[in-house]
């Protein structure tokens, strides 16, 4: 779903002649910016909801395969190997990190580990995430949001750079 925002060059001293911006313009631009940020955060909320809805889906759809490997103590790992490919949150393992890893995946990983640890043993094991994975997730999340934004001019036409 695209996020539609209007062009707003007057709320930042880097994009306008700040000496010529009056109170009303600055207030309008600030209100617009706040609403734009709300739309961005709502997009993240939608992404989190989608991640929650699909979390570990293969534990249900592939329950027989899961059970088979589980009963071997995961000496047979076909299900587990596939699980890391079809889910985005096993970030502690190199083959569990998608190329387009993002902060939604990081939050999914944290929720997975905390909930599993608390429910199964009453404690959470130390979580580790390589710094380069976190940095990549940060950059990819910004790109993910940017790709969803369409900026419109006052005339209603998309502002294509």
Structure description:
The structure is a single chain. The chain is mainly α and 161 residues long. The protein is 55% helix and 5% strand. It has helices at 23-54, 58-61, 63-71, 78-86, 103-120, 131-146; strands spanning 3-6, 149-152. The model has no long low-confidence stretch (mean pLDDT 93). It has a two-stranded parallel sheet. The protein has 6 helices and 2 strands; from the N terminus they run E-H-H-H-H-H-H-E.
Number of domains: 1
What is the arithmetic mean of pLDDT? 93
Which sequence of strands runs across the widest sheet? Answer: 1-2
Low-confidence stretches: none
SSE topology string: EHHHHHHE
Shape: elongated
Distance between the termini: 21 Å
Tell me the helix content. 40-55%
Given the structure, what is the number of helices?
A: 6
Main sheet, how many strands, which sense, barrel? Answer: 2 strands, parallel
The helix-and-strand class reads mainly alpha
Rounded radius of gyration (Å)? 22 Å
How much of the residues is beta strand, in percent?
Answer: under 5%
How many DSSP E strands?
2
Helices and strands in order:
Blueprint: E1 3-6, H1 23-54, H2 58-61, H3 63-71, H4 78-86, H5 103-120, H6 131-146, E2 149-152
Parallel strand pairs: 1-2
Summarize the structure.
With 161 residues, this protein is mostly helical.
Question: What are the salient characteristics of this protein?
Answer:
single chain; 161 residues; mainly alpha; two-stranded parallel sheet; 6 helices; 2 strands
């Amino acid at each position: 779903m695209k996020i539609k925002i209007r062009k707003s060059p007057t709320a930042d001293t880097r994009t306008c002649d700040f000496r010529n911006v009056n109170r009303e313009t600055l207030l309008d631009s600030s209100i617009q910016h706040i609403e734009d940020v709300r739309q961005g955060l709502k997009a993240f909320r939608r992404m989190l909801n989608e991640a929650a809805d699909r979390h570990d889906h293969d534990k249900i759809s592939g329950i027989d395969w899961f059970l088979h490997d589980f009963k071997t103590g995961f000496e047979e790992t076909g299900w587990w190997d596939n699980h890391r490919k079809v889910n985005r949150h096993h970030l502690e393992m190199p083959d569990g990190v998608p190329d387009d890893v993002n902060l939604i995946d990081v939050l999914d990983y944290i929720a997975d580990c905390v909930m599993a640890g608390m429910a199964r043993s009453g404690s959470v094991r130390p979580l580790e995430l390589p710094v380069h994975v976190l940095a990549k997730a940060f950059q990819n999340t910004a790109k993910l949001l940017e790709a969803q934004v369409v900026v419109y001019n006052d005339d209603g036409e998309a502002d294509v750079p």
